[in-house]
Write a structure and sequence with these properties.
Number of strands: 4
Shape: globular
Structural class: alpha+beta
Distance between the termini: 28 Å
Strand content: 15-25%
């Protein structure tokens, strides 16, 4: 699917977040996180416990969404990369394809 057909992260967060809650989005450069085997949300470590080690962003999307009986962790493709939420913490992580950190374009 072309990037232009995907929603931007801001649209996804508007759809799934309570407008009264603060919007905290952590941008995670996927190549750096994969190389380190860790990320601020512990998502890659969590996936590794199930034998899943995503090699690219598409793998990350597939790994998260294929976890059996998972109710807390969800992933969606967005224009900026892959958005992952941890529902119980109302935490959002934007995994980007580039190693450098980019600001997250989400309005409050």
């Amino acid at each position: 699917m072309p990037l232009s057909d995907l929603p931007p992260l801001a649209v996804l967060i508007d759809r799934f977040s309570d407008p009264d809650d603060p919007r905290i989005i952590t941008t995670v450069p996927f190549p750096s996180a994969r190389q380190a085997g860790a990320d601020p949300g512990g998502i890659l470590s969590y996936l590794a416990r199930f034998g899943r080690r995503p090699a690219c962003l598409d793998d990350l999307l597939a790994c998260v969404n294929a976890l059996p009986d998972e109710e807390e962790l969800h992933a969606w493709p967005v224009q900026e990369g892959i958005a992952v939420s941890i529902a119980s913490e109302d935490a959002w992580f934007l995994f980007t394809p580039r190693p450098e950190t980019r600001p997250c374009p989400v309005s409050s």
